[in-house]
C-alpha cells in the first residue's frame, strides 16, 4: 500500500504558526522550534502553504519567484534545515504549488504586460476587450485593463494574480522545471492550488475541461513518474464523478484530491459563500456517503474539515462554548474514521475557534473586496458582518495560541493579525497538561488509524441515515467492522429504537465521555461520539 494512504497530514500556515524573530509574522524558524510538538501529535506529513518570494497580496498565493524563499519567512538554508529535521524524525514535507496564476510582480508578467512581442506575453491570457462578464473569486470582473498593451488580462483571483496560459507549451515546461527542481531538493510532494482550473476555457467562462486531466497526465510523466512522492490537488470543482478521474492510480494524475462539497452546505446554493444557511446534518451525511462510495477502490480521498480558507470547524458545525471540547473531538472522530488521508489544520488539534473582530481588524483581501462589493449591492452592514463572523478566512488565520502570555506566545512583536481573545483559556500549553485534551484525542485517532487497516481499506455504510440527530456509519473489511457513532446535538439522544446500533452494547474503543455500563450504553450525551471495533 502507498505510504500516503496511511499518513496523516498537518497543514501549516506559516504566517500564523510561530514567529521566531519578533516581526509579528510567523516564519520557518518558528516551525523548526515546533517540530517536536508535531512529532508528538503523531502526524506523518507537513504541508507548508506558500513561503516563496511574494508581494503578499494574497498572503503568498501570489508568487513572484518560485525558486526563492520570501525573506519574511526566512532563508533557503532554514527551509533545508526544516526538511532535514522532519526527515530525521521520519516525517515528510510537502510544499504548495501555485501555478494557476503568478503574482503580477513575477518577471514573466512584468515582461508580458510591457510588450506584446515579448515571448512572455503569451504566458498569460489576453483579449482586446472583456469577452465575458465572469466575476473573479475575489470580486469584480476577471478581465483587467492593461494600459501598456491596450488589452485585458484574465485573473480568477485578485487582479494582482494573473492566470497563466496553460495552453502555451513553454508555460507548462517552466512549471515542470520548477516542480523537478523542488523534488530534486528532496521535498516529498506537493499540494496543488486550484489545480482543476488549469484546463479552463476563459472565452466561455468554463472553469474545468478535459484539458485539466490532459495537463495533469503530462505533468505526471514529466515530474512524478518513477518518484515515490505525494500529490494532492485542491480541486474545488471536483465532483464524486470527476474525483476518481484525478486520483485513480492507473490514470497517473494525482495521488488524491480535496473535494469541497461538504463545506458548501452552509451556503445558499449559487449565491456564493457569504449568503448563509444552516447546515443540515442529513445533507452532510449524504455528501460524505456519496464521496466515500464514489472513491472506494476507484481513487483516493482527502478528509478535511478545515484549512486556511475555511472557518474553524468547532465554531462552524460544533459548539464553541459549553461543549467545545466534546464537539471538537466528535468532529475529529467522524472524519478520521472514514476512508482517505486525514488533514489536521494548525490549531484544530487544540480546538481553536472563530473570531468576531471589528471590521478594521480583518486583513484578508477576499473579505476586504467583498465588503465593498456587498455594500454596493445594498447588503446591510449587519448581514455583511454576520457573513464575516461565519465565513471569513481570517477566522482560520489568527495566530496559534501557544500559551497564556502576551500575544499567546506567538510573537514578541505585534502580530500581523490579532490573536483570538480566548487564548488564556485555549492554548497549547494548557492543552498539553490535560489528560482528556482534544490533542490527546487526535493522538489516539492517529494511533487507531495506524493499527486498524479497516480504516484505510474498508467499505463504508451509513447507519440510521434518516435520523438528523446522529451521524453513524460502519467500515467493513471481511469480518472486521469498525463502527462510529456521533451525536450532533447538545441534547441526550436515545438510540434504543434503532436496531442497526446494537453494536453500542459492546466495548468501546474510543469515546469522548467516560463509558457508562448497562442499558445507558444506548444513550448518547451531548456531542458524544464513540468508536467500536468488532470481529478483530
Ligand atoms: O477560499 C475560498 C472561498 O472563500 C475558495 O474559493 C478559495 O479561493 C479556493 O478554494 C482557492 O483557494 C486557493 O487559491 C487561492 C488562495 O487565495 C487560497 O488561499 C488557496 O487555498 C488563490 O491562490
From TrEMBL:
Keywords: Glycosidase, Hydrolase. SMART domains: Aamy. SUPFAM superfamilies: (Trans)glycosidases, Glycosyl hydrolase domain. InterPro entries: GH, GH13_cat_dom, Glyco_hydro_b, O16G_dom_2. GO terms for biological process: oligosaccharide catabolic process. The keyword Hydrolase applies. Pfam families: Alpha-amylase (PF00128). Residues 11-397 form the Glycosyl hydrolase family 13 catalytic domain. The keyword Calcium does not apply. One of its GO terms (molecular function) is alpha-amylase activity. NCBIfam families: PRK10933.1 (NF008183). Belongs to the glycosyl hydrolase 13 family. This is Oligo-1,6-glucosidase/glucan 1,6-alpha-glucosidase. It comes from Anaerobium acetethylicum.
